[in-house]
């Protein structure tokens, strides 16, 4: 099947309806575009899970707060289409802002607990925006399965919770984080980093590795591991920590003693760029 670009919501719904009636399964990879190898890995995972592979590209205004980078978020549709072409994507769904959020729009999906942790405390309306747009994409594309990256761990947790709570009946698959050879987690926002900032950006991965080493050598005190990680990050110029946290992988509540697999998650500003990363620490 040749790759097709659909911008119209009703056309997308009609396409999915038709395919479902033919008994085909639909896999969806939601993205904000400016695609990289991390996105490609989600697409190849999705390719194994459905007959029809849909990738949505939509920079969702509802998940950006005031003063965040909505206006400057990198966009490159030409390159995105070349990547989706290589990955054998069937449909690229690119709805417009006005189509998804028309005049008078007022319905949002918000979760009670999960957004009260980690990134949610720094970006108060972010997960409401994420849950809302993903719920809308699920209603429009009606996928059987959707793939999300573990790089955005809290986002994946929010989506899994929403799908259970609202009975979407869609299988959610979490895919591992793809990294550059030096360890930096791939992100469209890495595009903002200057050559001078790049070493500081590596401090996120290095601090996760340091934490994993400490836990492997027998350290169980979360505060001690967090302190060592923070110290390492602060040793680089131009870094400002939003949070370094060790928490329960399901509830995201803080963990004091690392006596079971625990999520270490961090957000660090490098210059003007906010980066996140995470890893499961296994005692
Ligand atoms: P974004 O375009 O940044 O909204 O990301 C779209 C999807 O790609 C989300 O499910 C992300 O978690 C996932 N993703 C982003 N970066 C990576 C990466 N480095 N490795 C794996 N998945 C990623």
Report what the structure shows.
With 283 residues, this protein is an alpha/beta fold. It has two domains: 4-175, HUPs (Rossmann fold), CATH 3.40.50.620; 188-277, Pantoate-beta-alanine ligase, C-terminal domain (Pantoate--beta-alanine Ligase, Chain: A,domain 2). The protein is 36% helix and 19% strand. It is built from ten helices and nine strands. The protein has helices at 9-21, 37-47, 77-86, 97-100, 118-122, 126-141, 153-165, 198-201, 203-216, 222-234; strands at 4-6, 26-31, 52-57, 91-93, 145-149, 171-175, 239-247, 262-270, 273-281. β2, α2 (37-47) and β3 form a beta-alpha-beta unit. α6 (126-141) packs across α7 and α9 (203-216) runs antiparallel to α10. The termini are far apart.
Bound molecules: adenosine monophosphate
Which fold name corresponds to the CATH topology of the largest domain? Rossmann fold
Strand content: 15-25%
Residues in helices, as a percent range: 25-40%
What is the CATH architecture term of the largest domain?
3-Layer(aba) Sandwich
Count of beta strands: 9
pLDDT below 50 for ≥5 consecutive residues: which ranges? Answer: none
Largest sheet: 6 strands, parallel
Which structural category do the helix and sheet elements fall into? alpha/beta
Measured distance between first and last alpha carbons: 47 Å
CATH class of the largest domain: Alpha Beta
Q: In one word, what is the shape?
A: globular
CATH homology-level superfamily of the largest domain: HUPs
Number of domains: 2
Strand arrangement across the biggest beta sheet: 1-4-3-2-5-6
Order of SSEs: EHEHEHEHHHEHEHHHEEE
């Amino acid at each position: 099947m040749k790759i097709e670009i659909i911008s119209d919501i009703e056309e997308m719904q009609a396409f999915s309806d038709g395919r479902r009636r033919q008994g085909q399964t639909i896999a969806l990879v939601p993205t904000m575009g400016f695609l990289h190898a991390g996105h490609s890995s989600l697409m190849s995972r999705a390719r194994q899970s459905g007959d029809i592979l849909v990738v949505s590209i939509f920079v969702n205004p509802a998940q950006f707060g005031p003063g965040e980078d909505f206006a400057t978020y990198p966009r490159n549709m030409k390159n995105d289409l070349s990547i989706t072409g290589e990955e054998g994507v069937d449909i690229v769904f690119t709805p417009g802002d006005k189509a998804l959020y028309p005049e008078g729009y007022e319905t949002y999906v918000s979760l009670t607990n999960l957004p009260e942790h980690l990134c949610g405390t720094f970006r108060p309306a972010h997960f409401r925006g994420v849950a809302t747009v993903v719920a809308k994409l699920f209603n429009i594309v009606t996928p059987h399965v959707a793939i999300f990256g573990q790089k955005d761990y809290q986002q994946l947790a929010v989506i899994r919770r929403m799908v259970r709570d609202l009975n979407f009946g869609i299988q959610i698959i979490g895919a591992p984080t793809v990294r550059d050879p030096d360890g930096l987690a791939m992100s469209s926002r890495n595009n903002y980093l200057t050559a001078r900032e790049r070493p500081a950006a590596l401090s996120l991965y290095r601090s996760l590795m340091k934490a994993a080493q400490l836990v492997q050598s027998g350290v169980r005190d979360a505060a001690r591991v967090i302190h060592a990680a923070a110290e390492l990050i602060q040793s680089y110029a131009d870094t400002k920590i939003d949070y370094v946290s060790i928490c329960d992988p399901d509830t995201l509540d803080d963990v004091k003693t690392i006596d079971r697999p625990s999520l270490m998650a961090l957000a660090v500003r490098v210059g003007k760029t906010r980066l996140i990363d995470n890893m499961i620490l296994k005692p």
